[in-house]
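About this split. The held-out portion is used to measure sequence recovery: a designer receives only the C-alpha cells and must propose an amino acid at every position. Recovery is the fraction of positions where the proposal matches the reference. Here is one held-out target exactly as it appears in the evaluation file.
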C-alpha cells in the first residue's frame, strides 16, 4: 500500500505563500501515488494530459477565447491545436510548453540603481 502524503488545506496555502511554491511538487507526488495505487489494484492508468476546447482552455489560462484564437492564427508561432470537425482542441501540456516560451522575467534592477547612484555621486 502506498503511504498517504499530507496535503495542506487551501486556507493554509493562502496564509503561507511559501506553501504555494511547493504545490507543483505535491500535485506531482499525489499523481504518482494515484498511479502506483492503480497499478497495485491492477487497474489501467492514463496520463492526465487532456485535450481542452477553447472555452475550457480560456478558463485554465485566464485569457479570452478571442486571445486564444489570435494565438492560433499567429503566422510566426501559432498555438499548437487539433481540429475535430468544428471544435478546436488544445492539449494542456502543449499549451503550457508553448506559453512558457513567452515568460518574461523582470531584469535585475541592482546594476541600474548602482549606475544612477554613481552618476548622482559624481555630480556632487
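Reference sequence for scoring:
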Amino acid at each position: 500500500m502506498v503511504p498517504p502524503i499530507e496535503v495542506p488545506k487551501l486556507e493554509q496555502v493562502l496564509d503561507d505563500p511559501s506553501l504555494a511554491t511547493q504545490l507543483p511538487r505535491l500535485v506531482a507526488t499525489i499523481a504518482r501515488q494515484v498511479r502506483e495505487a492503480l497499478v497495485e489494484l491492477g487497474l489501467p492508468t492514463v496520463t492526465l494530459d487532456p485535450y481542452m476546447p477553447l472555452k475550457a482552455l480560456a478558463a485554465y489560462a485566464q485569457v479570452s477565447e478571442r486571445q486564444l484564437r489570435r494565438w492560433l492564427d499567429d503566422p510566426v508561432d501559432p498555438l499548437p491545436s487539433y481540429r475535430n470537425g468544428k471544435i478546436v482542441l488544445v492539449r494542456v501540456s502543449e499549451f503550457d510548453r508553448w506559453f512558457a516560451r513567452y515568460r518574461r522575467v523582470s531584469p535585475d534592477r541592482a546594476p541600474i540603481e548602482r549606475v544612477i547612484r554613481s552618476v548622482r555621486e559624481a555630480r556632487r
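Annotator remark: The beta strands are 51-53, 82-84, 87-91.
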